[in-house]
Amino acid sequence: MMNEYVKIMDQFFQGMLENNIEQWMTIWHKDAVFEIPYAPSGVLTKLEGIDAIYNHVKDFPEKLNFTRFSEPNYYPVEGQNTVIAEFECEAVILETGLPYNQKYISVIEYEEGKILRYKDYWNPLIFIGAYNDEPQAFLKFLKRSQ
């Protein structure tokens, strides 16, 4: 039997690869919290509730094209509905045409087959590099996603 978190993350990756935000949103609990602890100053570090998460990601298909996610390494937290996932992505920023190849470590708490809390750790310098090393362009991307 496949672990619940593997099913959730398979849908997570599939939704992003297919640019299907509506499908991607079905894996989120209505009271979900999405945190971005390393977000630059001036960018929200916490999105609370499914509507806030949707508003953050709804325009992603117009901004970036994910082409690949690596096979994740999972580290389940014993006795909890929490898993740490380590994976990489390959994508292209549509505005610049530059690659966005990122490494992620995500802490995911799930309940009843849905993501309840997602902490997304990634390197903002890689994202800024995909915007020609122009921090303001990167911040513009993130602020349009809020």
Automatic annotation (TrEMBL):
InterPro entries: NTF2-like_dom_sf, SnoaL-like. SUPFAM superfamilies: NTF2-like. Residues 11-118 form the SnoaL-like domain. It comes from the Bacteria. This is Nuclear transport factor 2 family protein. It comes from Metabacillus mangrovi.
